[in-house]
Amino acid sequence: MSDKFSTGMEVRRKVLGDKHVDRAEANKTALDTPFQTLITEGAWGTVWASDAISLRERSMLTLALLAATGNFEEIPMHIRATANTGASQEDVMEVFQHVAIYCGVPKANHAIKLAKQTFAEMG
Question: What is the pTM of this model?
């Protein structure tokens, strides 16, 4: 196991929570292990592990990018992660307002719908 992988798993667990990571690890197969290693080392062990900006800011950036590019499937996961990163519901709404202005109201509208559903599930 590389240092980047170890760091990536630590950060991934900190942001997404043990339940999520344990579930992802349990579902990993020989087919997707190289991909899982790539995202653990690259996304979590490099980008998210950097202390150049806070986890709160990374969380907000990630939500904006997911909404702006129409990658809605991962928005609920990253909304749930806000409980660990410190991004508030107000932060999330500010993010999606930026998305509306710079990338389109329909994308922001759908992201907000997902955020509301996920926040409601979170309690």
Answer: 0.94
